[in-house]
Hints:
Helices cover 81% and strands 0% of the residues. It is built from 20 helices and no strands.
Amino acid sequence: MNSAADSSPAVAPRMARVVFATAAMFVFFQMVLQTFPSVMREGLIVDLSLSEAGFGGLSSSFYYPYILLQIPAGIAVARFGARRVLIAGALLCTVASFLFAVSQSAASAELTRVLMGFGAAPTVVCTMTLAAQWFPARLFPLLAALTEVAGMTGAAVGQETLGFIVERAGWRVGMLTCGVFSAILLMLVVLLVRNRSAVGADSGRDDHWPRAVEIKRLIGSVPILCSSAAGGFVATAGVAFGMLWGVSYFQDYHQLSLSAASVCASFYFWGCLPGLLGFAWLCSRSGRPAMLLAVGAVGTAVTMVLILFVLRGQVALSAAMFVLGAFNASYALSFSMVKDEAPQQLSGIAMGLTNMLIMGIGGLVFQPLIGVLAHVRGHGVPDATTLSVTVVAQLFALAVLAVGARR
């Protein structure tokens, strides 16, 4: 990461906070875009003539460009600066939100969902790059956690707010609301976000593209791949269940209304908030992120089993979703693990690779896999047995961590 902030950490502290907070607001919103299908499922299935597998495919179409562009986003940020890349992404998200609201077919809705993925792809990389430019390096673990906190807050507030709007006015009004909010954020990014170079420090972008051999070496690094993949498998419980299938599961198998199911599922994201900060603090105290990530995987697996096979009632399930979020938040430790392994000049690309696997394993693989398994088993909504693949993912995380520990 750019260490300009380390050389003069006292320069413009207020501007540093404004820049980071504004960028983090778009991380907040891109998580709204990731999760909104979970509260619009019934309307989308009826209006766009979707099967359950088709709905899973529509939701996961966001993740194809989002995931594939993580490494290119890191390269673009290194070359053009975080501000330009973030503005371009915000513009695409705004246009796509309005287009999705007026979609009349599954094909057009899926196309605009892909466009959202393009726009949202660089947001986390941009925010973490700006954090590294504007703040001392010792604060990066906390700022990385706060970036993820912004995203989880967006997912929680998005599910609760959109669930309320959709239940009363329909999914198209909900998406128009997203478009207006995105347009406001776009203006704020244009007005407030600046690269560190804009106030006279080192450049916020590199003069040359990173060399292909350096990128290849980074991507092929076993410690970096193991750290990123472990975070991705742990995050599967949140990406596949908390962000998508949880609302439908609570509606169908626990007879909750849409708004009640949305609130119940949103407790996952509220639980992530203390979990992210707590794991970041424990990591700074112990210096053992891999061990803490393994603890998070075990806690996630146990809590998912309780949610799927033991607990009943909205209060108990909501409390369990909060605990699930607290354990599952350990996935963010993979960013710190990777940053420690990556060369400084390639850290933006390393962050992109990590985010790619964190979101890709759960969004690109497990979200549609759960929908396909439910369809094969003849269920309209995935049942507890089908959703238990999220527990298996935690075992994969522990296996990958074990492989990484031997390197």
